[in-house]
Amino acid sequence: MNAPAQPPRRPAKDGAHSRQGDASPRPAIRVMIVDDSLTVRTIFRRMVESDPGMVVAATASSGERAVAGLETDPVDVVLLDLEMPGMGGLEALPLILETAPGCEVLVVSSLTQDGAEATLRALAGGAADTLLKPRPGGFDEDYRSQLLGKIRALGSPEDEEIAAGDSDIGHARRRDGSHIINPVHERRALKPEILAIGASTGGIHALNILLRALKRDFNLPIVITQHLPSSFIPVFARQIEVASGRATRIGEDGTPIRAGEVVIAPGHSHMAVRRTSDGLFVRALAEPAPSGCLPSVDPMFASLASTCEGRVLGIVLSGMGRDGFEGAQDIVAAGGTIWAQDAETSAVWGMPGAIARAGLATFVAAPGDLGEAIMMQHRGEVQGVGAAKDAAPS
Q: Which of 113, 230, 339, 367 could make an SS bond with 206 (beta carbons 3.0 to 4.6 A apart)?
């Protein structure tokens, strides 16, 4: 599957123009429900409209009708079924994103093997997140809470500080298009011996773009923690192997971490890293992480900060919450480098936004630009963007 060289630049979501001190209420999140089942559409409508901050702007029973409806009914979030008569969700997805480039797509998926394949293809193609479609009787209060939480995260405008263009958070570009480097931590960091990437909601699309920008002469090992159910991980690993053009393994306890290869955190444990006389290996951890995520980015980052003595380039991509924040602090304190995805191309600027606002990221940019900068740094062609230096001789 070929991903575009760069994700579409997202127009500001409704309400994102508000400024600090503007007390006007935010407009309701506009939702489109796309499912061939009238029963499911009805249940979803009731759930969505139980939240006063949301409104069902349109419904559709097929991909064709969804695309046609988006031409006249602007929405913030599309709930997209993948299996429908006529044009299915996978075929409709690129047309939906093209017709309504400011919206986010939440795929309603099953957890079967076929469902995992199709869902991950959709996530790689630009869908922001996924949610299990339960069996009859499973549309309970817990499910409603999950659904509304995901819609709220995807459809809400960026917070007022971000929307106002706060000068301290290191936005990706100046008005002339050049990149902004965060002045708080701009420094010459230690030369990395490993690339570590953390991502969540919207991160799979970003990961595909970033990894495709890495050329064959980039031979550092790559470790990835992506928030996904365990049943999705084998499919995800195959997808990453194709996108990266590198051998890709699932990081069980004791898995070797080798140059030029990718290791992915399993869904059932955190992936930390340890060193022996034979090199770097995965250390599986099961204890709760500060973020509450499993797997969590924090243990991966924290272990690398110690094991590699700061010789780490850590990147935080799109995702809600703050997972990776504490580990990023450890990497920076050890002399390593943290970069983050920008708000403009993130489905949710929670994880990378927390990193950027805290001044931990020396570089904030779109996924393709991050990949190009990795190559420039690796080839010694970049200065100032967390530029690497060798450790001082002892």
A: 367
